[in-house]
Amino acid sequence: MFETQAPRHDWRSEEVQALFALPFNDLLFRAQAVHRAHFDPNAVQLSTLLSIKTGACPEDCAYCPQSARFDTGLKAEPLLALGEVRAAAAEAKANGATRFCMGAAWRSPKDRDLEKVAEMVREVKALGLETCVTLGMLKPQQAQRLAQAGLDYYNHNIDTSPEHYGQIITTRTFEDRLETLAHVREAGINVCCGGIVGMGESSTDRAEMLRVLANLPEHPESVPINELVQVPGTPLDGAAPLDPFDFVRTIAVARLLMPRAHVRLSAGRTQMSEELQALCFFAGANSIFYGERLLTTANPQNEKDRALFQRLGIKPEGRAPAQEPGCPHPHAHQDAAAWTTAPQA
Ligand code: SF4
Asked: Measuring CA to CA, how many Å separate 118 from each of 1, 136, 147, 236?
């Protein structure tokens, strides 16, 4: 039966497109069945994202306010000091996050900056949080260095399909992205890799983006699915909005193709209704960014997320991977205490 098949890495285009074309209810039913086979359906992982170096990026990603090529009014800021990062991570933990993600707007890190980031990774881990960084393209030895520092996850999104990629970014290639992902894997770091929808791509592009991810030698452990947040001054400001049901379909197909990955409902939640977010959780999303900023764009307030989770009976997922006797969900042990005692942000 579909729901119990082992994860595959040989998806064909027509198979993935056929999933996108399923009647909505059939697609969601299948996605929910797969989700329940691998995860507690009522637990969602919480990550908090901090911009540790903002703006002045030489790349030309058409969605990004941090590119130096677009006039978005964003104020560039240098790499944060270690103490600032530690304080932000401690606050994220107190608010119930289990993973702390740090993003720097670089094409690729300089070795001296990488050393500073390695120090941040060590400090954040010492607080008992999982760590993730996104720093741009990495050389093999840089990935090794981050692994030595104890980094848990490296985020590097493929953004869109190989066919649509040139419409979005011209300063690096799709193959460059895959190369960095391979270096991250070789270093033994977990991979966080997804993309953005609502960038004028077709349904076939969305299918191809997910097919590339699912056909990697190993599925990414985290798959962020972002909805474009349109920022005035960026080339994609004014792009035709995506049908919300197509967003949910993308989540559902990601769940079907990568059954053991955490699928993260990422950027764009402020422009989604709570009903739409609930539909995404039903379709298999089981991770969110939690905290009021996503690098340079807004994110729902902590108390709004808490209230939504309460209404839906969703609990935050704890980070302990230990499995309780008889429990089929290795990720499901919830750290409800951290959630219920967290101060209001
Ligand atoms: S997405 Fe990253 S690489 Fe692209 S412009 Fe923004 S900060 Fe630079």
From this structure: 45, 15, 9, 34
Residue 2 structure tokens = 């579909």
User: Could you tell me if the CB of 61 is within 6 A of ligand 1?
Assistant: yes
Q: Which residue has the tokens 């800021």?
A: 77
What backbone torsions phi and psi does residue 287 show, to the nearest 5 degrees? -160, 145
Tens of pLDDT along 257-274? Answer: 999 999 999 888 888 999
DSSP string, 233-265: TSTTTTPPPPPHHHHHHHHHHHHHHSTTSEEEE
Q: From ligand 1's centre to the CA of 320, what distance in Å? A: 32
pLDDT tens, 126-173? 999 999 999 999 999 999 999 999 999 999 999 999 999 999 999 999
Between helix 13-20 and helix 203-214 the angle, nearest 10°, is: 120
| Mean local confidence (pLDDT), 1-19 | 84
Q: Which residue has the tokens 């704890």?
A: 318
Q: How close is the Cα of 103 to the center of ligand 1, in Å?
A: 10
Rounded CA separation 323/54 (Å): 39
Q: Is 44 in the pocket of ligand 1 (CB under 6 A)?
A: no
- Nearest-atom number in ligand 1 for the CA of 104 is 7
Segment 111-130, tens digit of pLDDT: 999 999 999 999 999 999 99
- 197, containing H or E segment: strand 195-197
CA 153 → CA 3, 134, 207, 325, distances in Å? 27, 9, 25, 28
Residues 38-82 pLDDT 10s: 999 999 998 899 999 999 899 999 999 999 999 888 888 999 999
The tokens 């989770």 sit on which residue? 309
Q: How far is the CA of 170 from the centre of ligand 1 (A)?
A: 12
| Closest atom of ligand 1 relative to the 136 alpha carbon | 3
State how far the Cα of 206 lies from the Cα of 293, in Å rounded to an integer: 26
Q: Which residues are catalytic?
A: 57, 61, 64, 101, 132, 192, 264
